[in-house]
Specification:
Chains A, B: One of its GO terms (biological process) is carbohydrate metabolic process. The structure is a homodimer. By secondary structure, chain A is an alpha+beta fold. In chain A, a hairpin with a 2-residue loop joins strand 1 and strand 2. In chain A, helix 4 packs across helix 14, helix 8 packs parallel to helix 10 and helix 10 packs antiparallel against helix 11.
Amino acid sequence: MEKTENARWIWYPGDFEIRQGLLQNFSREERSYDWPAYWNMDDCHKNVKFKRYYTLEKATSFVVHAIGIGYVEVNGEKFPFGKKILCEPGKNKIRVFVGNTAGLPAAYIEGEIIKSDGGWSASNFVEELPAGSSTLYTDKEQDPNNIYFNTERVQAATVSSINGGVLIDYGRAVFGTLDIKKLALDKPITICYGESDAEALDIDMCYYKEENADANSTPRKRAFRYLFIPETTPEQVEIEAIHEFIPLKNQASFDSDNELMNRIWNISVETFTLCSGMFFLDGIKRDRWIWSGDAYQSYFINQYLFFDENINTRTMLALRGQNEIKQHMNTIVDYSILWVIAVENHYMMTGNKEFLKQIYSKMKSMMDYLLAQTNELGFIYGREKDWIFIDWSEMDKEGTLAAEQILLLKAYNAMIVCGSVVGEDTEKYSEKYEQLERNLMTYFWDEEKGAFIDSYESGKRHVTRHANIFAVLFDFVDKLKAEKILQNVLLNDKITQITTPYFKFFEQDALCKLGQTDRVFNIICDYWGGMVQQDAVTFWEEYIPDEKGNAVYEMYGDPFGKSLCHAWGASPIYLLGRYFAGIRPTSPGYQTFSVEPKLECFSAIDCTFPIKGGSIRIKKEANTLVVCSTKEGGTMSLNGTDVVLKANMEYAFDLPKELVGNSY
Amino acid sequence: MEKTENARWIWYPGDFEIRQGLLQNFSREERSYDWPAYWNMDDCHKNVKFKRYYTLEKATSFVVHAIGIGYVEVNGEKFPFGKKILCEPGKNKIRVFVGNTAGLPAAYIEGEIIKSDGGWSASNFVEELPAGSSTLYTDKEQDPNNIYFNTERVQAATVSSINGGVLIDYGRAVFGTLDIKKLALDKPITICYGESDAEALDIDMCYYKEENADANSTPRKRAFRYLFIPETTPEQVEIEAIHEFIPLKNQASFDSDNELMNRIWNISVETFTLCSGMFFLDGIKRDRWIWSGDAYQSYFINQYLFFDENINTRTMLALRGQNEIKQHMNTIVDYSILWVIAVENHYMMTGNKEFLKQIYSKMKSMMDYLLAQTNELGFIYGREKDWIFIDWSEMDKEGTLAAEQILLLKAYNAMIVCGSVVGEDTEKYSEKYEQLERNLMTYFWDEEKGAFIDSYESGKRHVTRHANIFAVLFDFVDKLKAEKILQNVLLNDKITQITTPYFKFFEQDALCKLGQTDRVFNIICDYWGGMVQQDAVTFWEEYIPDEKGNAVYEMYGDPFGKSLCHAWGASPIYLLGRYFAGIRPTSPGYQTFSVEPKLECFSAIDCTFPIKGGSIRIKKEANTLVVCSTKEGGTMSLNGTDVVLKANMEYAFDLPKELVGNSY
């Protein structure tokens, strides 16, 4: 990197994300107690050193600011932090030692020539690597142990008297704090929060409650749309909400003749924006934990909305933790595997080799950890305390599971792709891949059923959707088998339906991939449209059409256990971008990419999606489709014809009748 | 453990020591900067859970206090901390989840029946073990992240005007803070500290300085005997020193006809007491780091002074860190090995099987780490970045080193002893032991020289004292070879002398073991007596008789680099107890022990030394020696005769003329 870059805070690579991830996973609050995540969590290193050599043509000075204690060493001589240090011409070895028992040790080096831009190494006294940094921390007055949120004041949309108190509706989901502007009472108040009015009004069972609040109270950050203040009147109390966020640029737009779909798009954007901050969260109200499975889906949504590379890498580094692996990610074996697969997807999305170089050794150690629990057939099995999750669904879990093997197969593939890029020997993974692929087809593919069975050891030959969906998504079946899976499993009502929105994501993905966009269009209109009809301002963790009244808020045995703003609820963004607009990279970082719209469900549409270093706009009106990419490398496929797209040229296509639009 | 025990703070075992060890190793201060230790350091877990089952006969209530955030779970139902929780009769599963991003997570459970006494398990979500605790933290108002020192106010012994300022001499070494009682000046003062007057008076080069101090200043904890306040007069300033310490009971006493030896004893006690707190420190002024080599010697001194088991285990747990080993202890290979050997010694001293059970898995992983760097002959070698220390001495370090192999051999022995006690299979270590012993004698024992050579690979056959000393200490040579080592090495002036007090400890130990107590008596009188003559109030890191004036304070190229209160300086305590009083355990925890006094150097002496669960008093007057042990199990050996000692019986022995006393 260039010396002309600006200085920024530097740290041992990965440590910022691990430390902030720890803080994030400790931020869950439920009713009157805190609920730190229930797994083993790494913390950042507490003792690090930074190093850089400078060959100076003239004398120069610099000052080191640090979060922590320590000293600066110039050619062996020690100096304190915060004081100007003069460096003579010639070769200079500069080291900065920082220890911080309270959190992340970090340094900011300020000077004309000697400064903490790119080029510093960081060591934990065992391993020396390029120092880590973030574009969010470029100011010496900052402390990377804190998060500096942007804020937005939100006024009440409606204030009403009810149940002897005041109900405030902000008309939108807020993730933030409160400013009590007025309190004309001679006693403190209780503030009950709710994502729904029902939750806020339930003073016993609402998730969050601020008790003994007065005008000076600054409640902690919480997620809510409603507040209820018992035993007050609208004249006595005025509360502004302060929404907190890390700005992310929405790089996509969507407008169609289908008003419902437009609303679904907008609510998806609102939902995903709320759940995306320093990391991808599952949702804003409940866990606020970083789950690898949830994050996996968020990477895909991000690719078609923010195209923010940093939130991906922050989330992946936080999830992975330090080198030594003590437990599967979130305790779940499949979540560990999804993490490996996600790295390859990130590389395809961004083409970022530097990140691959940083993360590859942690991918390898993760694979070693996984390989240690494979049997002589190459099948991965669960050990005591391992959670073989896949999904909350009835599945024949005797012995090794098909779905888990298909994930592992894809992970080998990811290692081969990523390892080749960083110049590592991937022969081992190729061998493992071949063995596993062979045995997967031998033991788990049931030719008679035309589908993968859950388990071969039980002899039950039970079929669920999960393994079959993964096999389609990861291209492990040929056209013939894929068609069998579509008919025998995905479109077969006798096969237990997917009930969780988590796996619905994968199912829609697979259906689209198998050409079922029309069907998926209907599912989006029904399922997400159902939430829109229920006046949702964000998409929920789960929607069950039959549920009525306050029962819709119940989940996990808790009357308000359901999260009403959940990242995976935003999956229409991905489905619309990936399959309806039909945009996908065909080489890393969209050096080449494919645009293959399937817009028959829309009579008119005007949408833009980001790609690496550019964007693609697709416009359809009547029988004309116009496509424009700001970046070279695209190939447009329409109706069996391929057209190479030059940058910033509008290509107009006449649509044959069958593609003009169904006007759903 | 019994339910009737008192409650105490509990944590994940080892975490308290690891966390406090981190804080300790970050406490070094040098001139105007902090100097955290230069190695990879572990921190405690941040997320733990405690568990216990109670079968209650009647309802009972309890309250959980915690350092950190989290909740209490009773039979699956969650409760906040700090509130009374009622438990119904019958079987109850109680879990306490504590997360603390700022330090050690800990819990204190208060109740009649349900309380944090023994019997709780602690889990890091991977491994479940008996919870850790300390007798220092039994009060719910405490926080195990803090150390609660006892304090002692120290008045100036002399106050004098010098160099235009005031020099205060407290007449003793203080390790603590200051209370500025009077400051009749209209500007802030500078306070220069010194272990010596020369250091305090050197306002540029003194180690510690408090600048801009006023009457409200509370300087941080430092080690000093002198203060110098420039530009003041004795009328203008009055400062009390506040000495801080963790009380340790001196269980030994020593009084003889030799006044110098009495003073050496007393100064040794003062020195060792100052360097012993939460952990064994190398010294109080400079590093304040926990060094495994220094601690190793402190364990031996402790055995004959405080007999404090807890400071041993705290130091060993802090040194060892978490399960995963990333680096040798203090980066030094031999320090890792000494740690393993020390555990066996601690077991012989205390007979504490519980501690062995707790630590054994960490001994095993340490051995795995060491074994990974042995070659086909079983010899351990240094890897890149490993520090093969042994001593600051010229040594032929080509290839593998004899001294290192002898330490490793002793470590195998420790594993066999400790593994057998905890019921582990130690066959592997027996095999390794045999191979290494065989090859050690083949490759490193030089029959012609009658000594171990440093290195066989170089072909130089160079002999230094170190390997030979270790071989004697660990009983790896028969009488014949031991005698050869004595004559050819230890008493051979052509073999480079030991120059460091660190290795002098081992050398005196070996000399005594080979019957050279008379010689060692003289060495003590000369070397330690030399420091007494220089008005030492504590024993130094190093004493070089030829050095004069301020040159005595120089070390490591720093004019005041020498530590004047250094733990290993207290080694006369060990030598007097172990060899002159002749007390040592012959089975774990002094179930049996031997008393074999060698007191010919004293005409009269009255001394007491602790043993596990008792003490032994030895009195010599004229031609009578009286011995009394408060504990059964001792065997007195005198002049070739063994007498079994009954508890609390005085045994008087008439001394033959040659044992009456040399009156040195």
